[in-house]
């Protein structure tokens, strides 16, 4: 019987916990305000036809663009493994619970639920060629065929225990980004193996999560191939993006990410280690928060934002909507209007479910963000 364990104590996972809590709280508010919205009712896989990056004509000075842009993210563009591996079961894996690691034995992977705030876990199962084993999904899971799966997180992004139990799953994989925790424990108490993996928000955490998902599925040996494919896809996309960058480095856009929930008065500035920092680097832009030494996710202060003076403010689409659009955002936080981004109304919004998706979505998010920053006219 394979035994796969990881040493207790995961500093990276602990560092990402505040981010997960902020996003869970905010998305829960958004879902209530929107009355559930289309995403809560079911997300059909979306095919986005976009011209290749090398066919685009970038703007001369991406640091001086006027007006807002909505980024368009396609994918997932990484295809599933050609030969789905057979599971080697039973397997014992470490579940990275909030209270400490717990050994979980998995004996059956025929009926799987992979649940996360971003949908990245189910997409990893899909990428391993095991989509046929999925019996349900969260509201953010979005790959071809996922729309036919029943949703078990209809109340915002919380798990509906009754819906889960009705599907008779033999394995649940989650990353702690949705809950409540007592519901997750209730499902385990009902006899369902529940494995908590690390939350994927950037390349390095995505590689670790991919291995942990594969381990839980009993196909750990398949992970290195997928991880290498993802590494290559990210590197290739970054190379494509580099051709769009201005020759004058002074014209590189200076970007700040704000987590916004307008009606709740929530404004967080994300810096180093938040996950968005790696995306900003991947598109060749300057992360002004990281430049200023801002670490993690902390409430925004007017003084800090004005001092950073971003050319672009990056937000989630539902967050921008909750603030009343660009006009509402500028009115709610006058400090934003005092930055170059505010003066130019240069707000770039990205779909909530994909910006922090991690996993196999990373190349697609890099692609979408690059178009919005360097060739916004191509999205009109």
Outline of this structure?
With 380 residues, the protein is α/β, with parallel strands linked by helices. The chain is built from 16 helices and 13 strands. Strands 2, 8, 9, 10, 11, 12 and 13 form a seven-stranded mixed sheet that branches.
Low-confidence blocks of residues: 5-45
What is the level-2 CATH architecture name of the largest domain?
3-Layer(aba) Sandwich
User: Looking at this structure, what is the CATH superfamily of the largest domain?
Assistant: Nitrogenase molybdenum iron protein domain
Largest sheet: 7 strands, mixed
CATH topology of the largest domain: Rossmann fold
Number of strands: 13
Shape: globular
CATH class of the largest domain: Alpha Beta
Count helical runs.
16
Write the element-wise H/E pattern from the N-terminal end onward: EHHEEEEHHEHEHHEEHEHEHEHHHHEHH
Please state roughly what percent of the residues sit in beta strands, choosing from under 5%, 5-15%, 15-25%, 25-35%, 35-45% or over 45%. 5-15%
Domain module tally: 2
Q: Helical amount among residues, as a percent range?
A: 25-40%
Mean pLDDT: 87
Using the CA coordinates, give the radius of gyration: 20 Å
**What would you call the structural class?**
alpha/beta
Distance between the termini: 55 Å
Helices, strands, pairings?
Layout: E1 3-4, H1 11-34, H2 37-41, E2 69-70, E3 91-97, E4 100-106, E5 112-115, H3 120-127, H4 161-166, E6 171-174, H5 181-189, E7 194-196, H6 203-216, H7 223-242, E8 254-261, E9 266-270, H8 276-282, E10 286-287, H9 288-291, E11 297-299, H10 302-308, E12 312-316, H11 317-322, H12 325-332, H13 334-337, H14 340-343, E13 347-350, H15 352-355, H16 362-374
Parallel strand pairs: 1-3, 2-13, 5-6, 6-7, 8-10, 8-12, 12-13
Antiparallel strand pairs: 3-4, 8-9, 9-11
Helix pairs in contact: 6-7, 7-16
């Amino acid at each position: 019987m394979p035994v796969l364990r990881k040493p207790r104590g995961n500093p990276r996972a602990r560092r990402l916990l505040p981010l997960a809590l902020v996003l869970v709280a905010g998305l829960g508010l958004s879902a209530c305000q929107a009355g559930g919205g289309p995403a809560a009712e079911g997300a059909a896989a979306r095919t986005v036809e976009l011209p290749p990056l090398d066919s685009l004509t970038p703007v001369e000075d991406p640091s001086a663009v006027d007006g807002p842009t909505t980024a368009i993210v396609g994918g997932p563009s990484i295809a599933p493994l050609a030969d789905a591996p057979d599971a080697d079961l039973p397997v014992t894996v470490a579940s990275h619970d909030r209270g400490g690691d717990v050994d979980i034995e998995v004996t059956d992977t025929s009926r799987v639920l992979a649940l996360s705030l971003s949908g990245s876990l189910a997409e990893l199962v899909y990428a391993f060629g095991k989509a046929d084993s999925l019996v349900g999904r969260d509201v953010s899971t979005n790959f071809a065929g996922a729309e036919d799966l029943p949703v078990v997180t209809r109340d915002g992004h919380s798990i509906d225990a009754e819906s889960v139990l009705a599907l008779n799953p033999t394995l649940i994989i989650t990353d702690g980004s949705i809950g409540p925790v007592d519901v997750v424990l209730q499902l385990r108490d009902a006899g369902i193996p529940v494995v908590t993996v690390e939350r994927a928000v950037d390349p390095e955490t995505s590689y670790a999560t991919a291995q942990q998902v594969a381990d839980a599925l009993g196909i750990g040996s398949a992970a290195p191939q997928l991880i290498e494919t993802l590494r290559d896809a990210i590197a290739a996309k970054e190379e494509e993006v580099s051709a769009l960058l201005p020759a004058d480095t002074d014209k590189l856009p200076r970007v700040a990410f704000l987590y916004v929930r307008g009606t709740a008065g929530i404004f967080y500035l994300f810096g180093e280690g938040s996950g968005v920092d790696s995306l900003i680097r991947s598109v060749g832009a300057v992360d002004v928060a990281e430049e200023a030494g801002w670490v993690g996710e902390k409430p925004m202060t007017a003084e800090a934002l004005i001092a950073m003076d971003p050319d672009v403010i990056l937000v989630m689409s539902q967050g921008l909507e909750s603030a009343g659009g660009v006009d509402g955002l500028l009115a709610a936080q006058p400090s934003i209007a005092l930055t170059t981004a505010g003066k130019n109304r240069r707000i770039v919004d990205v779909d909530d479910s994909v910006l922090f998706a991690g996993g196999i979505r990373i190349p697609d998010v890099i692609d979408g963000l690059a178009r919005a920053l360097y060739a916004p006219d191509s999205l009109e």
